[in-house]
Specification:
Blueprint (H helix, E strand, L loop, with lengths): L8 E4 L4 H17 L3 E6 L15 H23 L6 E6 L3 H8 L5 E5 L6 H16 L3 E5 L14 E4 L6 H15 L3 E7 L7 H19 L9 E7 L2 H9 L4 E5 L13 H9 L4 E4 L3
Parallel strand pairs: 1-2, 1-4, 2-3, 4-5, 6-7, 6-9, 7-8, 9-10
Antiparallel strand pairs: 5-10
Helix pairs in contact: 1-2, 3-4, 7-8
Length: 287
């Protein structure tokens, strides 16, 4: 009896500090899950087309290849230091987002970096993160913040946002898997939007309904070895998850909420977390 090969965790590198953070996070995740790691550098030859049609001279392509190989060597050495079992590097002629989306078709997880606000590089990194989060064929992690790399960060919980939609089962499956391999507690959050004028009995009824929803969604999941805390709050989901990200090592949510529609590939909560979370964000792809 043969076993199916373990799909790799894929990450991209572009020489920035943010992409090297993504490599370190991806390498540690590969070590925890016993998965190989694939590191991609996108050459983006299309950006060199003169007038949009004339191909660049081969010398310019060679410069990009040399730079890419240098970045990949440095990233592979960084990954190996994290204990990853196997590292493969690859140059891709396409643009960064498309190269990573293509690679996600044969990956178990896609990991990208995201820089802060107010910088052109941050805007570019944000566009790649949003694109792969919306279009990747596998789950995506966007590595944000610095807290995940601090001493004691491994003791922080994994936080999962559950709204009761059809994606809740997949979100909880991913959240339990991450909490289990990290030996971390799991906080499952159901947040309903604020209703300032709601009467106290109505708030109590909403809270009861939220607890019943979480109990139902958690039923069938193997909780052995994972300390689970259920949290029901009257708050906007994006605000609640952003606040909890400050004391979490990972936030897990779906790419589209219960109120989403087919054209909304990455919901408002996901977009808010990509730009404001204080820790890495794990986006569980839609069905």
């Amino acid at each position: 009896m043969t076993t199916a090969p373990v799909l790799p965790i894929v990450t991209g590198v572009d020489g920035s500090v943010e992409s090297l953070d993504a490599v370190r996070w991806a390498a540690r995740a590969a070590h925890l899950h016993g998965a190989p790691l694939e590191i991609v550098y996108a050459l983006d030859f299309s950006a060199l087309l003169a007038g949009g049609v004339v191909p660049p001279p081969e010398e310019m392509k060679d410069v990009l290849r040399i730079r890419g190989r240098r970045y990949l060597r440095a990233a592979a050495e960084l990954a190996a230091a994290q204990g990853v079992p196997e590292v493969v590097t690859r140059l891709d002629p396409d643009r960064a987002a498309q190269a990573l989306i293509d690679a996600s078709r044969k990956a178990s997880l896609l990991v990208v970096g995201s820089s802060g606000h107010g910088k052109l590089t941050g805007l570019l990194a944000g566009s790649v993160a949003s694109a792969v989060g919306a279009h990747a064929s596998c789950d995506t992690v966007v590595v944000r913040g610095d807290t995940w790399d601090e001493p004691g960060a491994a003791e922080r919980p994994v936080v999962a946002g559950v709204d009761g939609g059809e994606a809740s089962t997949r979100i909880l499956t991913a959240a339990f898997a991450e909490a289990r391999v990290r030996h971390a507690p799991l906080v499952v959050v159901h947040a309903a939007a604020d209703e300032p004028q709601a009467r106290e009995p109505d708030r109590a009824a909403l809270a009861d309904a939220g607890h019943r929803l979480l109990t139902e969604r958690l039923r069938g999941h193997d909780t052995e070895g994972v300390a689970v805390e259920e949290v029901v709050v009257q708050s906007h989901p994006r605000r609640e998850l952003i606040e909890r990200s400050a004391t979490a090592q990972l936030v897990v949510l779906g790419t589209r909420g219960r109120g989403g529609f087919p054209g909304l590939l990455l919901g408002s909560t996901g977009q808010a977390l990509l730009h404001n979370a204080a820790c890495p964000v794990y986006l569980v792809r839609g069905a």
